[in-house]
Structures are given as structure tokens and as C-alpha cells.
Amino acid sequence: MNRFVHMQASAAGWLGVEWGSIGLVFVVGLVATLLIVGLYTAGIRLLAVGAPDIQVAGDGDPEGADAVVTDRIRPRPMAATIGGLACFAGFAAAVLVGVYLVIPAFHGH
Fold first, then answer.
1. Above 80 in pLDDT, residue 58?
2. Lower Cβ count inside 10 Å, N or C end of the chain?
3. Residue 81 C-alpha from the chain's centroid
4. For residues 100 and 107, is the Cβ–Cβ distance under 8 A?
5. Contacting residues for 82 by C-beta, under 8 A, at least 6 apart
6. pLDDT, tens only, 77-107
7. Is 46 exposed, middle or buried (0-12, 13-18, 19+ CB in 10 A)?
8. CA–CA separation, 92 vs 68, rounded Å?
């Protein structure tokens, strides 16, 4: 009794590859990557609102001796702080779900 089921090459596609599945994995990976990078970037940008400004004269070096760091004119708005932290929470949740899906010991398979 043969326990393996062989598919015909014409039924599964060229060389027996299911191209629809490969395309689906590609799209899901691309969307997940854009989501994770986007959340991280938005979190950094929102937490940078109201950060001290570095001023240099002319074409000076912002990391050089002539750079002047000014104080914050006003504190970061509460909405920017909450939004930044929410972006980081979404980023962390997406990473943890990815780790959970990749490591079989976490879900009993």
C-alpha cells in the first residue's frame, strides 16, 4: 500500500510547484514586512516630535564642535506620545506573533 499520493505535473503546475501558494507566501511576507517596518518608523517619528533642534552655521557639521543643541520649545504632545507607544506595541506584537509561528515548541507541533 503506497502512503504517498503523487500528483500529476499538469495538475500541480510547472514542475509540480503550486505557484499560487508561493505567490501567497510572498504577498503575506511583503505585507508583514511593510507593516512591521512602518510601525517601527512611525513610532520613532512620533516620539521625536518636539525633540531638541541641532543648529549649525552655514554648511557646518551637525556633530562638530560648532553645533548648538537648543532646548525644547514645548513638550511633546500627549497624542504623539500615545501614538508612538501604540506603534511600538503593535510592532512588538507582530514580532512576537512571528516568533510564535516560527518556533514549533510554543504551539505544540
1. no
2. N
3. 19
4. yes
5. none
6. 999 999 999 999 999 999 999 999 899 888 8
7. buried
8. 35
CB atoms within 10 A of CB 87: 20
Q: How buried is residue 43: exposed, middle or buried, by Cβ count under 10 Å (0-12/13-18/19+)?
A: buried
Cβ-count burial 66-76 (b if 16+ within 10 Å, e if not)? eeeeeeeeeee
Separation CA 17–CA 13 (nearest Å): 6
**pLDDT at site 12:** 58
Q: Which three cell numbers stand for residue 90?
A: 503593535
69 alpha-carbon distance from chain centroid: 31
d(CA 108, CA 28): 23
pTM of the predicted model, to two decimals? 0.69
Please tell me the predicted confidence (pLDDT) of residue 9. Answer: 46
Task: Say how far apart CA 94 and CA 64 lie, in whole Å.
Answer: 39
C-alpha cell at 29: 511576507
